[in-house]
Write a structure and sequence with these properties.
The complex is a heterodimer of chains A (about 160) and B (about 750). With about 160 residues, chain A is an alpha+beta fold. Chain A is built from five helices and five strands; from the N terminus they run ββαβββαααα. Classes of the chains: A alpha+beta (about 160), B alpha+beta (about 750).
Chain lengths: ~160, ~750
């Protein structure tokens, strides 16, 4: 079967790539666009390491076909820092030591960003349930949750000040 | 929610050690730029895939690869016949001794497959889809054999035999017939029969645990290329690039110097990445095809074919006096090894009563082969399993005597001078200090409601030292690069940079730490055994001290004075108490005129690792209708020696505790009647997710290890030792029922409640 030509907006820029009809969005991002920040931990949508935001919605890119990305707006971990400045979530993950091996970190960050876009003032329980689709085996989640709560607080403060 | 960032440094006498700077590899890891095993691409690389056995036990009658080879795009096919026959001899390359022949046969099966998922052939093709299609074209003719997974069934004299060459070791005389019991180990002291004859109280229990996986989120991955002249480059994610080099050289009959391994970032290991699975196959495929070969496992393959840790059956018997003094321990442990010998039952025997000073004991371990993947190291290998049985029994003893669970552990606790069951004499240990900190922690006073209960448990782990090397070099602006061979699993670059900065008297940000490839730094053992901050850290300190000595010498040359009159203070060379001084930056700039580049190396075998002790408390709530257990509160106290970067030490404690909670509550390998794993995915193999856990209060107790310049003790492993027993004891307190088998999953807890009720 011949490859499909796909045009999508990836991290703000228009991208064109070819993909087999059966190729996942994750494989297209990693292999066609060289965006290897999204990781494959399971390939079945259980670990969240491949989390990306598609048209504002959090998805596991291993469960979406690349062909479905046609005309869509895709945000990956590579687009999170803007102009060389880290997103508050990225900064707080570092300050709180919310990563050890770092493999699940891109997915956790993308999922957390998606949470704070819809709920800027989440409770600890809300953060825990929102991130329940992102497995982390190193940290026990403690510092991850603290980092997200702290980033949310800082982002609220910045919003109030502006 | 206490904010750990507000806590003062734990070591006020040191400038860098004990602070919480941002890790040097942090920005790469939060921006997605860090490159893990599967992220590296070699030009022209092929895609490798593995054909795996669908049977738990079968003889390979024939393998026909002709159709696969004929498929367009297929560039190489290998089977066991392409690998050399190797002698059965010990190979020291990972965290534990491995047998060279077994390792080779585990990488690719020869005459028999021994578990569902055992590799039988491998293919390299121009695309992953072609490689997968080729796997279906490989015809393997099997003669299916009876299999055995249950541990006690595997020990029976008439059990299906995995290897007819294995005769039980550790018996008074070599047995006359082969067995699935690879080894019997025994540790004994005192007069156990007398202890039981004179006991006021005897506690007994038979405990079971299931095989569990390390559960790293990154599947095994590598890219390998071998040139026509035999020189190979490997890019792989593992706990030790040198381990990969040694293993590949042995398995393929290559020269060590012809293999250069570059460590990719590693996405978790926990002991499971201290051996090779893919690299020898990828090298063989690369040799046959003449192209680089990338291999990445699927999650299904990770579960079915890489090391879980053992399942177990344990029988424990305690003898005690009415005042709570434990006078005797009789412990028998049977651990599943998987397809080849080498379960951690030996370490389980040595650590089982590591926290207790008991005069009479007999601890017997059996290493039992069964038709499951070859077990691999998992965080404090063996110790959590043994501690589940011992901590449950000690809890029963405290209940029976009406004693406080912490008090009974204090009363029988080891202290400096105690001779451990395995023979070592404890020095500078912090066991009683951890109990004291737990006793006074607010957790112990928190109120409990209906269906809630509190458990306590303790744990011990040896910690390791071993071979490490480090290179420290100075830039012409006075900034510093530290290179080690220890893959950074959980922030070790930060601790290496911090220790070097402390020695030099400069801010941590002036020191950058890297993980070098096997051709660029000296031999270093795996990141495992809680050895990296201790042993590699010591190499970094020694190399940095040599740099300081050289800087003093250079200053003496510039000033034309005796080096004996030059001191190094806070990043400066100082002559006679301040008459003259010169900064590191200035000395570095003048290096070309004082003798050239400044750098130093250290290579050592670190001895004297201080043992780790932990005391945990856990509160649970049981849903009586579903049997679900909720962890309400968890506190983990640990003697950490001295924390270099406290945040990452807390992280180790929290992560180890969470893994132990998963082991206690939900994780297990489940096999169908044909011996195939039924839950080889994260949906059915249920690891803790964020909503399953509360905050985990990591409390660091610091009893410094005098054998390390900054008092370091390993911290990574002991936090997984207490949780199994701790959670089980909390469930016992909440339900009034002692449960003897893990995991304490909802169906099991519900059944136990119904038995109690009915």
């Amino acid at each position: 079967m011949s490859k499909k030509h796909i045009t999508a907006t990836v991290n703000g820029d228009v991208s064109e790539f070819l993909a087999d009809p059966g190729t996942t969005l994750l494989d297209a991002l990693r292999d066609e666009l060289g965006l290897t920040g999204s990781k494959e931990g399971c390939g079945t949508g259980d670990c969240g390491a491949c989390s990306v935001i598609v048209d504002g919605r959090l998805v596991c890119s291993c469960l979406m076909l690349a062909a479905e990305a046609e005309g869509k707006r895709i945000e990956t971990i590579e687009g999170m820092a803007q102009g060389g400045v880290m997103h508050p979530l990225q900064q707080k993950f570092l300050e709180h030591a919310a990563l050890q091996c770092g493999f699940c970190t891109p997915g956790l960050l993308v999922a957390s960003k998606s949470l704070l876009e819809t709920n800027p003032d989440p409770t600890e329980t809300e953060v825990r349930f929102w991130l329940a689709g992102n497995l982390c085996r190193c940290t026990g989640y403690d510092k991850v949750i603290r980092a997200v709560m702290d980033a949310a607080a800082e982002m609220r403060q910045v919003r109030r000040a502006s | 929610m206490t904010d750990t960032l507000d806590r003062p440094p734990t070591t006020p006498d040191l400038a860098v050690v004990g602070t919480r700077p941002i890790r040097p590899d942090g920005a790469e890891k939060v921006t997605g730029r860090a490159r893990y095993g599967a992220d590296f691409v070699m030009p022209g690389e092929l895609h490798g895939r593995i054909k795996r056995s669908p049977h738990a036990h079968a003889r390979i009658v024939a393998i026909d690869t002709r159709k696969a080879r004929a498929l367009p795009g297929v560039k190489a096919v290998v089977t066991g016949a392409d690998f050399p026959d190797l002698p059965s001899e010990a190979l020291e390359a990972g965290e534990a001794l491995q047998n060279l022949r077994d390792l080779s046969h585990n990488v690719i099966a020869r005459d028999k497959v021994l578990y569902d998922g055992h590799a039988v052939a491998a293919v390299a093709a121009t695309s992953a889809a072609i490689a997968e299609a080729a796997l279906d074209l490989i015809e393997v003719k099997y003669e299916v054999l009876p299999h055995v997974i249950d541990i006690e069934a595997a020990m029976a004299p008439d059990a299906p035999l995995l290897h007819d060459t294995i005769f039980t070791e550790g018996l008074p005389a070599k047995p006359d017939r082969p067995s699935n019991v690879a080894k019997r180990s025994e540790f004994a002291r005192g007069d156990l029969d007398a202890a039981f004859a004179e006991a006021d109280v005897v506690i007994e229990g038979r405990y079971e645990t299931q095989a569990v996986h390390q559960g790293y989120i990154e599947p095994h991955a590598c890219v390998c290329a071998i040139a026509p002249d035999g020189q190979a480059t490997i890019w792989a994610s593992s706990q030790g690039a040198f381990m990969i080099r040694t293993n590949c050289a042995k398995l393929l009959g290559m020269d060590v110097a012809n293999i250069r391994v570059t460590p990719a970032e590693i996405g978790g290991g926990f002991g499971g990445k201290t051996t090779v699975y893919l690299e020898p196959l990828a090298l063989a495929l690369s040799k046959q095809s003449g192209a680089p070969v990338k291999m990445v496992m699927s999650r299904d393959e990770v579960f079915r074919a890489t090391g879980p840790t053992s399942g177990s059956v344990m029988k424990v018997k305690l003898a005690a006096k009415t005042d709570g003094t434990i006078t005797g321990v009789d412990l028998e442990m049977m651990f599943s090894a998987g397809a080849y010998p080498g379960s951690p039952v030996g370490a389980a025997c040595m650590t089982a009563i590591g926290c207790y000073d008991v005069p009479n004991f007999r601890i017997v371990g059996y290493d039992v082969l069964n038709n499951t993947p070859k077990t691999m190291a998992y965080r404090a290998p063996g110790a959590p399993i043994a501690a589940f049985a011992v901590e449950s029994a000690v809890d029963d003893l405290a209940l029976k005597l009406g004693l406080d669970p912490i008090a009974i552990r204090e009363k029988n606790g080891v202290r400096d001078g105690t001779v451990a069951a395995y023979g070592a004499k404890f020095q500078n240990i912090g066991y009683l200090e951890t109990l004291e900190a737990l006793k006074t922690h607010p957790h112990m006073q928190a109120p409990l409601g209906p269906n809630q209960g509190r458990g306590v448990a303790v744990g011990f782990w040896f910690n390791a030292g071993g071979d490490s090397a480090a290179t420290v070099h100075l830039g012409d602006d006075g900034t510093v690069t530290v290179a080690t061979g220890s893959p950074d699993i959980g922030g070790s670059r930060a601790s290496m940079a911090m220790m070097a900065a402390e020695v030099l008297g400069v801010p941590m940000e002036k020191v950058r730490a890297i993980v070098a490839d096997t051709a660029s730094v000296g031999f270093t053992m795996v990141t495992g055994g809680s050895r990296t901050t201790y042993a590699t850290g010591m190499a970094v300190i020694q190399a940095t001290e040599k740099v300081v000595a050289e800087l003093k010498r250079r200053a003496a040359i510039l000033w034309d004075v005796s080096v004996d009159d030059v001191e190094w203070l806070k990043g400066e060379a100082v002559y006679r108490g301040g008459e003259k001084s010169m900064t590191l930056t200035a000395l570095a700039a003048k290096a070309p005129r004082t003798g050239g580049p400044i750098q130093a190396e250290a290579a050592l075998n670190a001895q004297g690792a201080g043992p780790g002790f932990a005391a945990h408390a856990c509160d649970v709530e049981i849903d009586p209708e579903t049997g679900a257990v909720t962890i309400l509160r968890y506190t983990a106290v640990q003697d950490v020696g001295r924390a270099i970067h406290p945040s990452y030490v807390e992280g180790q404690i929290q992560g180890g505790s969470a893994q132990g909670i998963g082991w206690a509550l939900n994780e297990e390998y489940i096999f169908d009647k044909d011996g195939r794993m039924e839950n080889a995915g994260f949906l059915d193999y249920r690891m803790p997710v964020a909503s399953d856990l509360p905050m985990i209060d990591a409390v660091m107790v610091e009893v410094p290890n005098p054998r390390h310049p900054y008092g370091v003790k390993g911290v990574g492993e002991v936090p997984i030792v207490p949780p199994l027993g701790c959670v089980a004891n909390a469930v016992r307190a909440a339900t009034g029922v002692r449960m003897y088998a893990l995991p304490l999953s909802p169906p099991r807890v519900r059944a136990a409640l119904q038995t109690k009720g009915g």
